[in-house]
Each structure stands twice: as C-alpha cells, then as structure tokens.
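Teaching note: in complex prediction, the entire set of molecules is handled at once rather than each chain in isolation. The prompt given to students was simply: 'Predict the structure of this complex.' The entities are:
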Amino acid sequence: MLEFFEAVARHSLLQYALISGLLVSVACGVVGTYVVVRRISYIAGGIAHSVLGGMGAARYFQIVHGWEWLHPIYGAVLAALLSAFIIGAVSMRSNEREDTIIGAIWATGMAIGVLFIAKTPGYNQDLMSYLFGNILMVSKSDLWLIGGLDLVVIAVSVLFHNQLLAVCFDEEFSRLRGLNVEFFYLLLLCLTALTVVLLVTVVGLIMVIALLTLPIAVASHFTKRLWHMMLLGSILSAVLTTSGLALSYGPDWPAGATTILLAASLYLMVKVASRAIKFRSALG
Amino acid sequence: MENLSFAYEAVPVVQDANFTINAGEFACIVGPNGGGKTTLLKLLLGLIQPGKGSVRLFGQPPSVSRNRVGYLPQHAKLDPRFPASVLDVALMGRVGRGRLIGPYSSEDRRLACDALREVDMLDCGRQSFGELSGGQRQRVLIARALASRPELLLFDEPTAHLDVRIQDELYELLAKLNHRITVVVVSHDIGFVTRHVRKVICVNRTAHVHDTAELTGELIGELYGPDVRIVRHDHCCEEARPHA
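The expected output is the structure of the full assembly:
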C-alpha cells in the first residue's frame, strides 16, 4: 500500500487513474441509485455491452481513415445513447418484449465492435481494455472528457432530482400530475448510458453492472432516503475504485477486476452481517 | 368548484355506462373483480380513450383537467423498499405544480407539511415510507394527493389489506376531507360502506349489458338499517338493472 502511495506521487499516470476513479464514482453513486431503485440494471448491462460497437467503430476510423479526433469515447457515448433511445422507445411504444430487445442490443453492439476491431490493423490490445477496462491508460485529455461527462450527468440528476424521484416511485401518479413520464424515463436511460460510458473507462464494459449496483446495494442497507443512498453510494464507490487501484498495483493485478471483487466482498459481508444481526435480535 | 360530470357509452369492457358524480359528493364505485372498475378509472383519468361516448371531468376532457384530481393508486403496487421518507412522498404531490427544475420551494414544503398534518402523519415525516404500516402508508398517500390541492380525490381500493378498525379510521378521515373535496372510492369488496358514502355506483359487465346505478343513501338505509349500510354487489346490480 505504502509503495502505491509513493508511486502515485511519482507517476502522473497513476494520478490520472486515481482522479478519474474518484470523478466516475460520483456519477456512479447518483445514477446507480436510480438504476437500482427503478430496477433497470439489465438495461444498463445491455447498454454497456453495446458500447463496444461504438468504441470499435471509432477506433477503426481513427486508425484506418486517420480521423484522429474520433476518440473511442465519442463512439461509446454515441452507441450508448442510441441503445438507450432504442430500448426506451421499444419499451414504451411497441409490443415487443423489453428483455428481448435488450438482449438484441447487447449482442448486436458487441458483434459490430468485434468486426471493426478485427479489421483494425495492429495489436488487439484495445479490445482487452474495452472489455476489462484499463484505468492506467487514462491520459490527461481523457481526464477532461471524463470530467465533462461527469459534470453533465451530475448536473442533470441534481436539477431533475424531484421529477426523477417521483417517476421512479410512482409512474402513474406522476403522469396524472402532468409530468411527461416518457421524457423522464428516457432522460434516466440517457443518464444511465453516459454513466456506463464513464464506468467503462474504469472497469471495462463487462464488469460495469457490478460497479453500478453493488455499492448502491451496500448503501441501501444503511440509508432510507434516495439522496442519502446516492451520497453513501458515491463515497463507497470512490473507496472501492481507489482501494482496487492501490491493492492491484503491487502484485500487478488487473485493477478493474480487483475493484469488482472488492465490491462483491463488501456486499457479501454486509449481507451476512445484517442477516446475523437479524438472527440475533430474533433470538434475543 | 365546477360541476364534475362524466358520461360515456359503449366501450368494449364497460358498455353503455352513464352516470354523473356531482361536486362535493362522497361516491363509491363498487363491483366484482373484472367488472370493469379499473377500465372505468382509466377512462375517467383519460389514460385510455373510450371507443364510443365521452367522458367529462370538471366539464373538460380528462387529459386537460386530470391534474385537478388527487389520485391514489392501489398501494400494493408501490415498492415498499423504495428509499423515500414520509415527507419525500408528500412532496411528490407538488411535482409538476411548482418549479420546473431544482429543489422544492418553501411554499411546496409548507403545503406538504400541511397535508401531512391534516392526515395526522406530520410527526412521522422523517420516517421511511416503507417501514410504515398499511394504514399509515395510505394516510401518507392521501397527504401526497392533498399536497397538490386537488378538487377531487380518487381512490383505487383504499381498504385492501387493511383490517377493519383501520378501514373505519380511513373512512372517518375521508369523510372529514369530504367537507371540502369531492371523494370517489373504487372497490371490489365494499361489503361495508360507512354512513358517509352518499352514492354507490355498481359496475359489472356480465351478460353483455353493463349496469351502472345510483343508489341513494335512503334506499340502502331502508334495506339495511340507518347507521351502517351493507351493500352487496348482486343486490345493488339487480336493483340497478333498468330493464330487470
């Protein structure tokens, strides 16, 4: 651990990794709470996997056609928002089963990504970092992008907190109060999409759902109000991403996987402890 | 308050239903499960459109005037694990009324607190909504509706899952509110209607004909005694059938 903090002081890459982890945690706690209480983590999973299509395509055009400005994160944002819109529109307007369309988006996005990456010359290191994340690859310019996205997500969530809370709690009542429920549901899906993109940089797209939901699930044991849950969720995910990074640094483990395992262990511990407390109070 | 009236004819589930509820009334819509009560409710709120006929709410199409209705859904539908305090829930009644974005105004907070005081739940403001008993939750949902300053309170199965004593208290509260607000209660199992209910509308779509009816309190009183009126669906629908 000490070795890690010494290294942070010396290497700017580690500093960027640390800062991006902390930035992302705020959006993760805020939007993750909505995802958990509205029970749409499967949608978040679908969006996360479809992001590969956007990233792969952006990388392809960057390398093959020399579109230097087309950072993979732009592709990711585009793909995520597109998926959110499709899933939202289908679940509100069409008779198709929602989980069918989520599965279709999930796999189609990945297929597009795999094709583009296969046709992109060079090593396939990109694919691995998209799938499993590589927080140490975050550059200074990435940091600005992450910070900007983070700001958008948090600002929108805070400004529309009351409406989103009401829509998540009771859709029917909100509609009768004159709220445009469809708009707020789509807004929520878009926020989820942007947060997923942010988290992909930290843990990769496969493990996004865990980081989006586990800290919130832990926080829900200790909080009774939505914004308390968001606050504690943000703090927990900041602690988890930081300790994941620190713990993985010495033995040279993948940071994303370490973070997820830490989150899962914390969740398990809290679950077991709360069971034990309930059991004891039932006895006593 | 304007005169509240609606009438409509020939919708697939509900057929040739005609009735009016006047401002200031305490009305009860009863009927067995599958009898078309929910359809009626949705029509009334403009959530679905009638195939034939028309619905008027405060003399306007429901989609225009429904924000003047305080609607209480079946509370079983709400997620008991949702992290919201009692005050949070009451404040939701202010959504769509006050500011477009940002936090609630102090006016919103005052109205939400007033509403909670009216249903006797202000002391529980900080408690978690999910931890309340069924009767308390129902009171908080009434406060949420009241916070929006409605002219009509519409309840879907308010007494489901509640024991008889709590049901009584709830009807007592509704009667108190009825002094200034029109109250409409929908139920599949109103075996027991307190003396406060002034109008009973029976809904059942069986045998092609759709029956709705208005039973005066006096009529039920004659049938079942002066104080507590027992209304059985089969009875009132038979009474109601115009050509029977």
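Point out the following to students. Residues 1-58+152-216 of chain B form a domain with the Rossmann fold fold (CATH 3.40.50.300). Helices of chain B lie at 37-45, 62-65, 86-91, 106-118, 134-147, 164-177, 217-224, 233-240.
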